[in-house]
Amino acid sequence: MGEIAAAVSAAAAVAGVLLVVFGVGSPAPTKSRPTSPVSSSSPPAEAAPPAATTPGSGTPTPSAPPPSATSSPPTSPPAVPGTVLRTETFDLAQGYGFTIEDAPLRPGPGDIDETGSKYDVWSSSHQNLLAAHRDTRFVLLKDREKATYQTCRQQSAFETYVDDRDWDNASVCAYSPTGLIAGIETGPVDGPDYVVPMKVTIWAN
What we know:
Blueprint: H1 2-22, E1 84-92, E2 96-98, E3 108-109, E4 121-123, E5 129-132, E6 137-140, H2 149-153, E7 161-163, E8 171-175, E9 181-186, E10 196-203
């Protein structure tokens, strides 16, 4: 029995040596290396800037904003009826006329056919008449009454011409189809050429 026990002890010793040499058995637990704490005084790491995109890389580029709509310039309000737009004095000779809308009023020679149809007011060289053209109408004021805006507004007996016997030192209201009113004060008819001095006042209506 003693010999058997000794043999068992020797075998156990040999097995222990083999375990140690060849690493057989439970490994010893390894300790993890502690990580060093981040210092609170260290600056935070900066994020890398985004990569620049190049045209044609597939990334849509923002389009320019549409141009803002331009507004039309404000228009001036219409003149109050009765407002004097202009007053001018000139001599009107036979074969000449003027247009009420013109600013300034400038008498000009007639058409090739001498009808004066391109003017509102025309001094005829054939019939010695002050004629109204282009839908303009006349009123010869009676008793040499002055042509004022209120007086011209009250008239209704319209004519298309004024005879030379009546327009010497006369007052005539002329009504333009565009709505303007002209008060025409004539002076004396000067000689055979019928050059008539005129003072013309244009009112808004």
